[in-house]
Design goal:
CATH class of the largest domain: Alpha Beta
CATH topology of the largest domain: Aspartate Aminotransferase, domain 2
Largest sheet: 7 strands, mixed
Number of domains: 2
Oligomer: single chain
Distance between the termini: 23 Å
CATH superfamily of the largest domain: Type I PLP-dependent aspartate aminotransferase-like (Major domain)
Number of helices: 14
Strand content: 5-15%
Radius of gyration: 22 Å
Bound molecules: pyridoxal-5'-phosphate
């Protein structure tokens, strides 16, 4: 039978995407990353076809003995890497991790205090997202623009007067660590739990370049496994509190997952093992690159936020492009030059400017994985100046970007080995 045209067309669309986003773009989206070839191979296993409802050893289906082993491995490796007692790996995304924890800690009608959206709180923390879907009222914590952080004194007053069920920390524009210790002390005083959402910085925590919130007094942490932690898309919950862990394990299934996307688990385990050996070197370079990138952008003439604070301590930096036409226009022009970023609200933007905010957000984690160093980010800053400040034709700059990107095609911080050679069993792992 001749191949149907729609199939040929589909394959060509996928190839175009892979070539463009995988080989020809400089990706600076702060919430994305790439898996190593080893982890990608582990992703494509028969586990992608299976179900394993329940917990290892207590499943509702037969045929899961190897899935159980891998799932226990994921929990064990993360428990060691994070130095925490309990890991719940079944959340299929950071949002599902948040939904589970919020549901465990609050009932409809309860109140939660959250970091303000303009300062980078995730939509899942708000009435527009998961918290709203659960019927929990959200009240924003006060933000201090000068320290680019939660205003601790004002937050303490608010916690004492509102007496919320939970307080969430963590954000999607996460330049400096939030004051976990100070907030946790007061939250616990009024009987509230502290949920610290480290979706963006899990890889930096594992690489010891960002504080672990559990060790600073947070009751439970939620995360994504695909942002600075360079694994497959998925979620993670961790805590030292046994009672909380047990409630979380009872609530996530059957309330928030049935199938927990089993092919994630081997790839997550491979990535966690890579991070055990290469995590510190990787996280260190990510953070150095972010600082160097911020300095380079500032010297090219960009308004990088938080200058007086040293710009950033994470993988993320933010530039104010209001005087260059705004975030929407800047992000679009950069895309035409194959530089992929997202527009972002700045703390002083009104919420209704979400479609054309003043900022763009940049992250160094993915290009660091491809081997970029400080001097390479200086080059990226120059490309951005050409497009946004010099007003050069983005399609001309695109040619330079494609040429430049050819030097960064191989994922570093991994083991260079063919996954099929790692076992005596003469059966290809992927089939
Ligand atoms: C990305 C993000 C999430 C959600 O993660 P998904 O895995 O995309 O569901 C939650 N919280 C914060 C702060 C995030 O940045």
């Amino acid at each position: 039978m001749d191949m149907p045209g729609e199939l040929i067309n589909l394959i060509s669309i996928i190839r175009s995407h892979n070539r463009w986003r995988g080989l020809e773009c400089i990706n600076l989206i702060a919430s994305e990353n790439v898996m190593s070839p080893l982890a990608k191979s582990a992703y494509l296993s028969d586990m992608m076809h299976r179900y394993a409802e329940g917990r290892p050893g207590k499943r509702f289906y037969q045929g899961t003995k190897y899935v159980d082993e891998v799932e226990l491995m994921v929990s064990k490796i993360f428990s060691d890497l994070l130095n925490v007692k309990y890991i719940e790996p079944r959340a299929i995304s950071g949002t599902i991790a948040n939904a589970t924890v919020f549901r465990v800690l609050s009932n409809p009608g309860d109140r939660a205090l959250v970091a303000p959206v303009q300062a980078g709180a995730h939509v899942s923390h708000t009435k527009f997202g998961t918290l709203g879907a659960l019927g929990v009222e959200h009240i924003e914590l006060p933000f201090d623009k000068d320290s680019w952080n939660i205003d601790v004194d004002a937050a303490i007053k608010l916690i004492r007067s509102i007496r919320p069920k939970l307080v969430t920390l963590g954000a999607s524009v996460y330049l400096f660590p939030h004051p976990t210790k100070e907030i946790a002390e007061v939250a616990h005083e009024v009987g509230a739990y502290v949920v610290h959402d480290v979706a963006h910085v899990l890889g930096l925590i594992v690489g010891r370049r960002w504080p672990n919130p559990i060790h600073e007094g947070a009751d439970v942490a939620t995360a994504s496994t695909h942002k600075t932690f360079p694994g497959p898309q998925g979620g993670l919950i961790f805590t030292d509190n046994e009672m909380l862990y047990k409630s979380i394990a009872r609530v996530i299934f059957p309330w928030f997952v049935s199938n927990h996307h089993l092919h994630r688990l081997p790839a997550t385990a491979v990535t966690a093992i890579e991070m055990k050996y290469f995590g510190e070197a990787y996280a260190d370079q990510v953070v150095r690159n972010a600082r160097a990138f911020a300095e380079a952008l500032a010297s090219e003439g960009f308004k990088v936020v938080a200058e007086s604070l040293g710009y950033t301590k994470s993988h993320t930096l933010v530039i104010d492009v209001r005087n260059l036409g705004g975030g929407a226009k800047a992000a679009k022009l950069l895309e035409e030059a194959n530089i992929i970023v997202n527009k972002n609200l700045l703390p002083w933007d009104p919420p209704e400017s979400v479609r054309d905010p003043s900022g763009i957000r940049l992250g160094t984690q993915e290009m660091t994985r491809y081997g970029m160093l400080e001097s390479d980010f200086k080059e990226v800053a120059r490309f951005m100046r050409k497009v946004l400040i010099d007003g050069r034709d983005p399609s001309k700059v695109r040619e330079e970007v494609i040429e430049f990107r050819k030097r960064f095609l191989e994922v570093r911080y991994t083991f260079k080995v063919d996954i099929n050679s790692l076992s005596d069993i003469k059966l290809p792992l992927i089939y």
